[in-house]
Amino acid sequence: MTELIERAAAADTPAVELSMQQAINRALRVLLAEDPDVLVFGEDVGALGGVFRVTDGLQEEFGDKRVFDTPLAESAIMGMAVGLAMNGWRPVPELQFDGFAYPAIDQIVNQVARMNYRTRGAAPMPITLRLPSFGGIQAPEHHGESLEALFAHTPGLKVVAPSDPGDAYSLMLQAVRSDDPVVYMEPKARYWDRRPVRLREPSDPIGTSRIVRPGRHATLVAWGAMVQRCVQVAELAAEDGVDLEVLDLRWLKPLDAEGLAASVSRTRRAVVVHEAPLTAGLGAEVAALVTEHCFRDLSAPVQRVTGFDVPYPAGPLEPQYLPTIDRVLLAVQRTLEY
Amino acid sequence: MTELIERAAAADTPAVELSMQQAINRALRVLLAEDPDVLVFGEDVGALGGVFRVTDGLQEEFGDKRVFDTPLAESAIMGMAVGLAMNGWRPVPELQFDGFAYPAIDQIVNQVARMNYRTRGAAPMPITLRLPSFGGIQAPEHHGESLEALFAHTPGLKVVAPSDPGDAYSLMLQAVRSDDPVVYMEPKARYWDRRPVRLREPSDPIGTSRIVRPGRHATLVAWGAMVQRCVQVAELAAEDGVDLEVLDLRWLKPLDAEGLAASVSRTRRAVVVHEAPLTAGLGAEVAALVTEHCFRDLSAPVQRVTGFDVPYPAGPLEPQYLPTIDRVLLAVQRTLEY
Amino acid sequence: MPPHTSAGRESITVDHLSPDLTRALYRHMRTARDLDTEAIALQRQGVFPAYVSVRGQEAAQVASASAMDPARDFVFPTYREMAAALAYGVEMVGYMATHRALWHGGLYDVAASRFGAVNAVVGGPVPHAVGWAVGERLRGDDGVALAYFGDGASSEGDVHEAMNFAGVFGAPVVFFCQNNQWALSVPNERQVAGGSVSARAAGYGFPGVLVDGNDAGAVYEATAEAVARARRGEGPTLVEALTYRVEPHSTSDDPGRYRDEAEVRRWRERDPLTLLRAALLAAGHADEAHLAEVDARARREAERVRDGVATAPEPDGSELFTHVFRENTKELARQRRTWQEEVEL
Amino acid sequence: MPPHTSAGRESITVDHLSPDLTRALYRHMRTARDLDTEAIALQRQGVFPAYVSVRGQEAAQVASASAMDPARDFVFPTYREMAAALAYGVEMVGYMATHRALWHGGLYDVAASRFGAVNAVVGGPVPHAVGWAVGERLRGDDGVALAYFGDGASSEGDVHEAMNFAGVFGAPVVFFCQNNQWALSVPNERQVAGGSVSARAAGYGFPGVLVDGNDAGAVYEATAEAVARARRGEGPTLVEALTYRVEPHSTSDDPGRYRDEAEVRRWRERDPLTLLRAALLAAGHADEAHLAEVDARARREAERVRDGVATAPEPDGSELFTHVFRENTKELARQRRTWQEEVEL
Ligand SMILES: Cc1ncc(C[n+]2csc(CCOP(=O)(O)OP(=O)(O)O)c2C)c(N)n1
Ligand SMILES: Cc1ncc(C[n+]2csc(CCOP(=O)(O)OP(=O)(O)O)c2C)c(N)n1
Ligand SMILES: [Mg+2]
Ligand SMILES: [Mg+2]
What we know:
Low-confidence stretches of chain A: 1-10
Largest sheet of chain C: 5 strands, parallel
Shape of chain A: globular
Strand content of chain C: 5-15%
Largest sheet of chain A: 5 strands, mixed
Helix content of chain C: 40-55%
Oligomer: heterotetramer
Bound molecules: thiamine diphosphate, magnesium ion
Largest interface: A-D, 47 and 48 residues
Order of helices and strands of chain C: HHEHHHHEHEEEEHEHHHHH
Number of domains of chain A: 2
Strand order of the largest sheet of chain C: 1-2-3-7-6
Mean pLDDT of chain A: 95
Structural class of chain A: alpha/beta
């Protein structure tokens, strides 16, 4: 409650129509303006403004010392971020697509995530890795991957995935201002969807989930583009008198165990939905966590609706791979009838 | 039952005293001898015989065309394996330590794991990646990591981690003979422990777990070096009249859902133990899977006893990080008293 | 030295090549050009979600691929080797299927074509070529691998590791860099330290050759020499073909944001196809009548491929599960049933 | 050109350097040698689980680190830079703590020392140096970064990517390769295609210098020049110091399996410390009495560090949780409580 009041009191702008791509751009503008140590760099983020135009106009406004292109080498981009951080900067590198984070995994896991630990706090890594993520845009291979389980499993990283423009804005401010490394996963499929938003300063602490739709009969847990899908499911279910709660996890590390537990101990049923393959996906962690916290309250095992254990497929197969509304509805039915 | 009979009938050697390092060496010898397409390569696997001597003597016996050193570059080692496989070879590359698999993750995830898929079966990848894994030997940084969650989450890979010399032998034969890519995670902490073993041809299909100690009150699920620890726990608990079953998962992908379910639906309680950090570790998958299959049978939520969500620490802190006998016992107590 | 600007040589020669070969080069380049035009049209019509043009790079691709032997060699492409695929004899409806997003790697038979799957990881396939080549030598066979990559790709660690491996193992591999001067929005000056990809070869102890990528005859000669060297067991060569990406990076790109159209126009005028056509006529390898016939044939072939790919059936959803493993797992079989019950419906 | 075999020059000169500097070089090298000997003993006594010796590489390390300014520059080491750390002024008990496995990165203050944490990923820290150097230029400051790496590390993709970045950004960085001719069991011939690490620099458009790594004066001069160049804003330099790893790779290694002891013996005889001592005397920069005093002081310092590290307290288990994040999480606080209740007991 106090949380809600505080939120409302936060210094807000009036509502504007923005896509998530624009909202993140606005956040980066604020960050570059407020802190001269913030640097934005990566492949094609300068003159082009990024392949998704998220950094559009930033180089023009802040100059090519603050916003610059790098050569095409993901590992060096993240390695450079480490060195810049050690020299007092606050790097906001972009890796162009999820699937091209793999060449940089060594730097991310072995260096970024543990440099503060290795140096006992002498070399903090206030790095925000912007990573256009997840599928749903019928893109080429390696352009539709979901790496959250890997990042969440890596000690020293924080991981966030916004689901709408307004939240994307606040979470970006929070991520970049944080003195810990944050992987900020941008759901590509939501980049272009415009909606009226108020640009707010962050108010919830890092690691807080949010209920985007309250409900009584079961909790749908999701992040990124799947939140919207779950809202659609909830609207459809409502027509049949089934009242679903939709919880937007947002922070994938740290996970909001309390928020999850609070919701599920009320609804007694949970369905977790994600795009990544099933096995060892983050859905398993959510299911394990919920079960540990709500074992006696649960009326059914947590259902997982996820991508299949197959490489992310091309165009026409994409809708067959991603969790469909039908699959989520069937899972809801399974949990209700359990 | 038939399985047990078949096993017994398999062509066995008489029992010999062998360490796991020796048992794997024997398996590689058999494989190199039986199939001229098998190639063993990696950093220091030739004259040196690998830093753990697992490839000891192989270059001498099979020549430096079958067993050879590469320059120091993990990504190229795995990339080379892809090209060799496309040219009809059966590569058995080694990456020297778990933590140095990260530089090769792009080749492993984006190439090895999906080349058969990408080419619709025209370019199979019968690659076995040998990866000395897990902690427990007070080694330098990056020499004690547990990457199984990442590998198990990657579509197209199979993943196995033996727990004793005899099994290591059979599983290596099975992994290398398989036409799919297999990550073979060798528990370093168990390399040197000698015990009488019979070297057997593989008999259980890929993806089969095994009960290393039957019991009634709860199932301990583990792999690699943690299996031995769980057996110790079971022996201690037996003194207090608590009868624990120990299930060696072995195959971490595909997971033996049926074996897990069969055990836990009997014991009604499960504790999963691993070295990797807790969050999004493979323990979450085991917990989720067991809960999905045994929801009505479970008397308590699956307990997870794991490494903490911190970078793998140096020497004196190692025993404080790894699951201790006490921690596992406490988890057993929690589940029994739930 | 090839011209780093379009102000370079205005004409090329093919006098050193056989009439048959040069006519074949022309035919493939012409077909590739037409197919490229068709592909851009298909993208505009919404049949392809996106397309990466090879326009202006036909000489670099066709001439290099023509120097390889599809009966014993192996080619490792990136995502922009349509003209190379065509010249190498890849089944082109299957090749173009990747652009319709029917299957990421394309629908041609990689093993039969001896032409790797379309690979979207910049730099990623280069070590594969080295592995393949090392494997060839181990077996005592004389095939050669050729890896295509771009100027942008030269920045990736994998390309360095691959070259170093190739040098150490003396692998029969040709590293073929199409330097089209742009990696998406980043020009050579901000991509390639030192300014030359081919100069890197010296550091690995093997030859690096810079060639005019818009001169089909020169590209053929340089590649053929590199292939012959490799086949003789003398190890790798790095060939850098200097050319220019006259089209946007892909149909999703907006190059107006980052480069000068005047430069593009100048390079469009130095068209490799026009240059080759003139050289053919000058060498007396063909006359206008022959070329007109080739042009017509190319047109028909491009239309055949276009129609083929536009009407190719979409893969069945069950294909999601078919090629994940050679030896399927229970878990994946279970997921396939889920798909059947919940998605296929 | 430095000798690729130990059969090279029998003496070196320090006539071009100041007496103060050469005496300091000698003192650090002598101390490093003694500390190295102590460290091997500590490993044998079981105090260190393992140790990587710097013996024979003292000139390469001490002379290069001495060319850097600890007040404004920054050094990025690997796991084998004990002598460099010592010369650069790092607190050595904290440095040696990494070898007792008290804390992976060492227990010295990385920020205050301007000397990066011990880093076990071969090649991994090299791009950090470039990032640091780019950051220095962006701020308009004149510090220089130096990255140490080995001949084996030169094969890693990260080293290539870092050099290319450095060239493109004109970063003030010195790439310092200690080519000790072995990467664990693999010799240069099977590691470095082309046979020369420094030759790679030309491909990135900046100077590469090969220097006798056992000649302290030559190493100092080459590094100082590279540092000065970088400080003047003229960009990176790659310095390759040719030396030899006379000890096993680490105390866990068994070099009898892969190399000839005779070669090792020859290199042991070309000892950088002996060479420098003779050069100091020849130049008249010191006399025997002075050197005897330095030797005694070095001995005492090595013993002090040895005793310090041998008796340093083990970190408390709670430190597991202390530095994971700057802003701690509830989950980690909960895990810390679990640790307290279940492990600390
Ligand atoms: C590893 C990786 N990083 C980033 C990308 C995104 N990307 C696709 S093409 C491209 C530019 C490639 O430039 P170049 O190698 O010169 O090839 P060209 O497109 O000019 O043919 C980029 C950055 C990718 N596909 N793979
Ligand atoms: C990325 C990576 N791969 C493998 C290793 C294991 N390893 C440690 S040292 C070493 C050899 C390094 O050789 P070099 O770079 O020449 O340095 P030197 O040990 O000779 O100082 C290897 C293979 C590692 N530490 N990091
Ligand atoms: Mg290019
Ligand atoms: Mg070395």
